[in-house]
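REQUEST ID: PR-0412
SUBMITTED BY: lab tech R.K.
PRIORITY: routine
TASK: structure prediction, single protein chain
INPUT:
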Amino acid sequence: MSYSSDEETDPELLELLRQHLMGNTATPTAAETGVLESAEFVYNHAIDVALDMRGCKKAANTIWEQMQQREYSPATWSTHELHPKEKNEETVKFIFAMDILNFSFWSEKSEEERFQIEYRGKRHTGYWNLVAGLQRGLEEGIPITDPAFWINEEEFTLDVLRNVFRSATDEEIPLLQERFDCLREAGQVLHEKYDGSVLDLIEEANGSAAALVNLLASDFPCFADIHPHPGRRQPIRILKRAQIFVADLWACFEGQSYGSFSDIDKITMFADYRIPQMLWQLNCLLYGPTLEAAVREKRMIEHGGEWEMQLRACSIWCVELIRREIIWEHPEAKGKVNAVLIDFFLYDVVKELEAEGGEKIPHHRTRSIWY
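STATUS: complete
OUTPUT:
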């Protein structure tokens, strides 16, 4: 830019300079979830969980090779038997309900005695219990994925939810009351802030995955997977279910329509109890002797405690390093692999190992609504 004289000024430049000096620039700041930074902090200060860098490097190559062999992509999500196949507003509502309730399915009972849902002649366990229960409820005429139903105090009761997730065994779905409370609360927030519409919530994020995660965390207490840490002034942001809602939308709609996000790569893995188990099996995660003994003995690990925080945060950082290694060693993977797909892939593999009896260590035991 040039000026014809010292007296001539650019009013737009002056305004930009004024806003900058006042700390109010006109350029919008891209949303960040803070999850990766939280995970790195916990990893850097962890005592009981560590990463084996050689194991991570080897795992990265193995994961990338197997993802290619299986032609793993966002489209894989819809190939799962119970996931919705339609690409419409009802599916968005289904995914929202699913991820509000996507927590704590493990059981100490045997495979025959544990909570199971029978749907279309087949019994399901774990996460697939949840999906089967929702699908069965809808087929039986219960509008269980409708936020307006969740806030109807006469029609939506604890007994209705108990019926939706009725078990084929004597064991009930864990944390039934908490699941009911989460649906009621989410319905109320949608009603008060988003005209009762999940689509309005998504639209508010303006195509940003990180912004949608942050909206869920700030407006919906049941998505606020955020925890204090004694060594850090800012709380640790894990945000498992908020992130997986965004990821499920992206995968279901294959990055289009309601699943179109310009910054999907800002989503990390979803820190639960299954992926740490798989990362340990791949020789990526190392547990200290006391923690490993507790996991092997299936002792309850305190929610919000140091062990749980390290298991979850170090898993997030581990998958991030695996992602970076894949792209470093295989530049052609850029744009084809992210933490979301790595997480989905690892979950599918660990469930296959479980079915085959190939698990070398149990998953850790923590009961909470966060995962």
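NOTES: Residues 306-329 form the longest helix (24 residues).
REVIEWED BY: pending
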